[in-house]
Amino acid sequence: MFRKASITVVAALLIASGISAVPASAAKISNGVACTKVNATTSVSGYKYKCAKNPLVKNSKLTWLSAECLTAVTQYQAAVKARADLANVADQTAALDTEYNTAVAALASTTAALEKARAQVTQSQATMNASTNPADKQKLATAISKLANAVLVLSGAKTKLSTQVKDLESKKALLASAPGQLKTNADDAKASANLLCAKGF
């Protein structure tokens, strides 16, 4: 009788103080709490948990991990992989430099050819205007037409090569800054994972 009265009094005190009675099993579930069935899932107060090994902990055992923790860990692993994939940055830089130098040389050659074709058009036009021989005028007109077409082709090629050179310059700059940026990304992701996977969360 005394035991029943004590339980009733405790329950009344909990309700009066605004504390809800929570099942003991539910109250124990949080990050880092041991569990036994791998991939088991449960929800506590709206938070989802999964029974798994924490990749951030060496020789980790099965524990409950929140959904937020698992998402943060996945993001951290992706950041680490991205950094590892760029380990051969020297080789990538060398290949990019070769492609860039080839594009720059092609642009210079195309620019020179374009300027020459334009000069020939101007010269041929002046010669045709000064000529009084109909046959010569016809030949010059045909030559000018071909040169004009060459000017159009070379002008288009120059535009494409100029764009390619600018793109390669951007890639070189991005590649040069990539190692530092990827390290920052990995550090940030790890900090978030450590926070969200902290015991008791």
TrEMBL record:
Protein known as: Unannotated protein
Organism: freshwater metagenome
Lineage of producing organism: unclassified sequences, metagenomes, ecological metagenomes
